[in-house]
Each structure stands twice: as C-alpha cells, then as structure tokens.
Amino acid sequence: MSAVLLFSACGKQTKDNITLDITFKSDGPFFESSPESLQHQLAEELTVFMKQHNATEANIKAVKLISASFTTADSAGFADFNSLILNMMAGGDSKAKEIAVQNPLSKESSFSAQPAGDADLSEHFKSKDKFLVCDLTPKADRESPFEIKAKLTFEFTFKD
Amino acid sequence: MKKISIVLGAALMCVLMAFAPASGDRLLGIWQSGSGKAGVKIEKIGTKYYGKIVWLKEPIDPATSKPKVDKNNPDEKMRTVPLKGYRILKDFTYKDNDEWGDGTIYDPENGSTYKSVIKMKDNNTLDIRGYIGVQALGRTDTWKRMKLGK
C-alpha cells in the first residue's frame, strides 16, 4: 500500500489503496427463473487498514472502486451465467450502488470488470452494516455450487 | 383455573411471536406488478429490502428474438444487462404500520428511477408509490403476491 499525501487549504488528506480478497459462494441450486445474489458482509477486513491510518469512519472522505477482478475454479468458467453485477449496500442513509458490471460472461475462468467510475462509496464504508452483493443471472437451472474469488481494490481518501 | 388459562394463553402468544416473521419481513416474497408484466422477488440484505425481477410475462424481446435487456438504462454499459435479475427496488426500510420507505423504484420502460414508498394493504397486496420530490406528485401501482407455480 502506498500512501499519497495531499495538502490543501482545507487540511491534510491522505490517499491509500486497499485490496480486498472476497469469496462469494452459493451452495446452489441455481434456478433460471430466480437470479442469485451472493452476499459478503464486510466486517474485519478494514480493521488493520484503518489502524494504519489512525482513522475512524469519520475520517473517510471518499472511497471508490478502482479495479475488480473475478476468478472461478468452476470447470465451466462463468459460462453458466449471463451477467455479473457487483453491488455495494449498507445501512443508514447510503443508497445501493452498482459498482462493477460484466456482461456477457464467458467460459473464461477469470476476468476484470469495469468499475463504475463515479460511484463514491464513502457513506457505505462509514456504515457498520455493509455488504458486497454479487448478482448472477443463470442461463439455465444448475444444481452444483458456485464460488467466485474477487480481488477488489478501493481507493480511500482520508481527511484529518 | 382462570390463572392457568392466562398463563397458557401468554405462553401460546410467546410461541406464536417467536415463529412469526418480523413485521418488516412480511414484505419478503415474489410480487406481480400491476400490469402483470413482471414478477419481483423482494429480499432483505442487512436491514434493508430490495427487489429484483425474477419473472417476465414476455421474456423475449420481439425486436431481437433474444431475452429482454435493460435497453432504456441511462447508464450505457447497463443496456445489455438482462432485465430478468435486475434489481428495481432498492434501500427500503421498514417504518411502521405496514409501510416501507426511503427506497427507490426503477422503471425499465423509461429508464427512470423514482423515490418510493410501499404500503401493505393486506398480506397479499402492496401499494407501491413512485414519486418525484413530494409524494403527492407520483403514481401508485398495486402489486399482488405471486403464487408458486405461476
């Protein structure tokens, strides 16, 4: 993690990136008529990062997703699904946001998705109750489980 | 005897309350829009309620002979995402008196998102109001709970 210090008239700001390794898993079955949402609740992943910056939620000024890659060990790759939409949801006043989209999906076992560039996630990360939700639309019924490993890099801007 | 009846009654109430869904969770399930064109599954993530399209009366776009996509989405990169599976209800919180608020509803027919409140009229009927600015400037659609197998 490399920190970049920015100084402005409003006070010191620090930017730093954190990469989260998230596993999304569903035991199945998947039904063609019922698109599946694979959830991961963020809890301890940010603890060390926040301590490194001696920061609390109140010090978070801005957060954006800058890269998102997804891998599956499934033999069919992602071919059993039409599309993947990664959402961030949280409690309080924050609003659900689609933060990365891949459509269509292919039989490849990994890909990088284009993050939604303008989505500020600071209110989400300030919330104690925050979720990453991966929406998968199956092409057809599927009985077997499915697991995705996601590598998500977020850029945080902290304020004093 | 009267005391025993009261105790038994209270115990029964406790058991019923323990197994009854939390008031807000009565919204969970699959609902059919007023037009009958779509079925929306409402689920809970954290403390909020969200709904995504899981059923379409006409899933194939006659213009392309392929599954319908979200072609009116203002975000260009979302226009090829399948409509089935798209989350159109977001961020509803349970208020009280069978009402959920603070949410939004997305209309795939025009690509617009509106503020929204949901009122449960009875266990199988919802009034969903989408509005701009104040609630008076809006439209209410009545949704019915979908039965399995539909």
Structural commentary:
- The complex is a heterodimer of chains A (160) and B (150).
- Chain A has 160 residues and is mainly β.
- Chain A has one domain: Jelly Rolls, CATH 2.60.120.
- In chain A, 7% of the residues lie in helices and 53% in strands.
- Chain A is elongated, with a radius of gyration of 17 Å.
- Chain A starts with a strand and ends with a strand.
- Chain B has 150 residues and is mainly β.
- Chain B has one domain: Lipocalin, CATH 2.40.128.520.
- Chain B is built from one helix and ten strands.
- In chain B, the strands form two sheets. Chain B has an eight-stranded antiparallel beta barrel.
CATH topology of chain A: Jelly Rolls
Annotated CATH architecture of chain B: Beta Barrel
What is the mean pLDDT of chain A?
90
How do the strands line up in the largest sheet of chain B?
1-2-3-6-7-8-9-10
Q: What is the helix tally of chain B?
A: 1
Largest sheet of chain A: 9 strands, antiparallel
Count the E strands of chain B: 10
Unreliable stretches of chain A, pLDDT < 50, 5 or more residues?
A: 1-9
Strand content of chain A: over 45%
Separate helix tally of chain A: 2
**What's the structural domain tally of chain A?**
1
Distance between the termini of chain B: 50 Å
Q: Tell me the radius of gyration of chain A.
A: 17 Å
N/C terminus separation of chain A: 19 Å
In short:
Chain A has 2 helices and 9 strands, in the order βββαββββαββ. Chain A has 160 residues and is mostly beta strands. Chain A has a single domain (18-159), classed as Jelly Rolls.
